[in-house]
Amino acid sequence: MNESLVPITPSRSRPEALRLAARLDEVGIPSMLLPEPHPGRFRVAVARPWAREAAARLDAWADPGARPAGGAYRTAAALDEDEPLPTRRRRLAACFALGLGFGLGHVYAREYLAGALLALGQLACLALAAHGMGEVIWAFPALMAMDAFGAVAAVRRENERRRREPTAQLAATLPAVALVVASAAVWAPAPADPAAPTATHGAP
Predict the structure, then answer these.
(1) Residue 17 host element (H or E)
(2) Which of 68, 153, 162, 184 sits CB 3.0–4.6 Å from 138 for a disulfide?
(3) Cα separation of 90 and 107, whole Å?
(4) First and final CA of the chain: distance in angstroms?
């Protein structure tokens, strides 16, 4: 189970999630628990080929009187109509990040705020380099690499229906972008100026 992992239950306590996962295992459907942001809460997930059967079985086992309106689980109808199965690809996210830059890896993974912050960081590198801070340009490829690695993880979260909230994207991305740009400004060597005169052997 990797990119094709599909959560099929709402957030549950650990004992309840384990009970549902055990029932699925009993009928031959492998499952696992995905932790939620809230401590002690989990969702039951299965591989994509098992999603419709697992959701249908959980709906059949659920107590109709205790089920919330609209169904407790992702039924086959819901999977087909209301919420298409995820189709994001990690390799494609990395290609967007490294081939095009400007945060497009995260944008492809639907973490739009993180992508916007990375794009602003890369634009800031270009602007500062154009105004005499040439050493900052070294941060540009570092931010592209950050976008690529982060986008791969973001695609995994998106396909598992665990997309980060905007506040979490801001808290994780803004300090990292600022650190990379500041480090380049302080530590990176300035690019050589081709117009500068060079010393020659034997020159007085």
Answers:
(1) helix 14-26
(2) 184
(3) 12
(4) 71
Share of the chain above pLDDT 70, in %: 77
Q: Locate all alpha helices (DSSP H) within 32-138, ordered by sequence.
A: 51-61, 76-77, 90-99, 104-108, 112-130
d(CA 136, CA 128): 7
For residues 142 and 24, what is the distance between their CA atoms, to the nearest angstrom?
44
Which tokens belong to 86? 């995820």
Kindly report the length of the chain.
Answer: 204
Task: Confirm if 89 and 97 have CB atoms less than 8 A apart.
Answer: no
* Residue 171, pLDDT score: 93
How big, in percent rounded to 5, are the helix, strand and coil portions of the chain?
Answer: 55, 10, 35
Per-residue pLDDT of 118-171, as tens digits, reads 999 999 999 988 888 888 888 899 999 999 999 999 988 887 777 788 999 999
* Four-residue CA torsion sign, 51, 52, 54, 58: positive
